[in-house]
Design brief:
The structure holds two protein chains of two kinds. By secondary structure, chain A is mostly helical. A two-stranded antiparallel sheet of chain A has the order 3-4. Chain A is elongated and about 60 Å long. Helix content of chain A is 35%, strand content 8%. The longest helix of chain A has 22 residues, at 32-53. Chain A has two domains: 10-100, no CATH class; 102-206, no CATH class. The model of chain A is unreliable at 155-164 (pLDDT under 50). Chain A is built from five helices and four strands. Chain B is an alpha+beta fold. In chain B, a hairpin with a 5-residue loop joins strand 2 (22-24) and strand 3. Chain B is elongated and about 50 Å long. Chain B has six helices and six strands, in the order αβββββαααβαα. In chain B, the strands form two sheets. Chain B has a two-stranded antiparallel ribbon. In chain B, strands 2-3 form a two-stranded antiparallel ribbon. Chain B has helices at 2-10, 53-57, 63-73, 77-91, 106-110, 131-136, and strands spanning 15-16, 22-24, 30-32, 41-46, 51-52, 95-97. Chain B has two domains: 2-49, no CATH class; 53-136, no CATH class. Classes of the chains: A mainly alpha, B alpha+beta.
Chain lengths: 206, 139
Amino acid sequence: MSLAQASVWSPLTSAHWAEETLNPSAIDPELLPLVQQAMPLVMPQVELAARRAWVPGKMDGARSQLSDPWERAATDDGAGYSRVELEEVLTAAFGLVLARQWTAPPPEFAPAGGGAALARGDVPARWGFGDGAPEGPALLPPLAGLLEPEAASAAEGEAAADGEGEGNVVVGVPPRPAVGSLGEGVCVRCVAARRIERGERLVRRA
Amino acid sequence: MLAILTEWLKDTTRSVGIGSNVVLAASGDALAARSVEAGETLLELRSGACLTARAAYADREMGRDLQEIAAQVGPGFDTVALATLCAVERVRGFEAETWYAGSTAAEQAAAPRTMHKEPCTSTASRWHICTAHLANGAQ
């Protein structure tokens, strides 16, 4: 009887890893020393997780029951993850996060502006107006063009400039309503910036 | 992969608008599921779809250790915590054990922990923390 189940965040993390496997992110050389400084701090946690995840027999070379090709290759010696393999995973994870994270929430929508108008001013501290709203950098579902962070969408924008013009969706954080709590718990709202036809690709307006 | 992500996002604790307003193409692009006017909300993401360092700090296996490191390192550690969570998800095969001290983070970490006097499965040890029972509301 298997006691394992998909983890709570696995649909999001595995989707990011799938894209990362296809298009590996390079770590900015300026950030590389910081990454190298951080890795030894958290490597024990990764090693511990790898040890606990190790299942004898299941991860055993030719008899491997693993469906993930990467995982099968990493454990094909029947001895689990080596230190080098774990360092590769952790380095790739830093590359993934540094390339795909939103370092801060997008701007708030204007309280009285209505529609797709964004407020001018500071970037909100939290992902939402609730006191318990998440804060800090975040990974959002990888919806190409719509929920990619600035750096990724800059390249996207260059491509879009040729054919699709500027984005058609404004992405922002809902403001605290004057009355009530409508929108509490919402981290990000995507609002049409103009009329959008069915089937049209949704692209975030920078 | 995309189908799993779509189904996951359809949960209203994670988002509102997937399927009805927005569909995901095989390329990963988001497409309008219907025609909309300017100012209409297409998609709302809720905290269940916004992965922050909070999930890493709530991880039942490594969260406490990460919190201690974060307290020593100070601001800026959230990105490291996120990267650690991504790496750990990878080596766990994106799975979490249903009963032992491992991984499912946000939902279960928010729930109070209950110790069982007797094992509730053949493989569970005595005094284990049974998150599966907590999720079902059983004592």
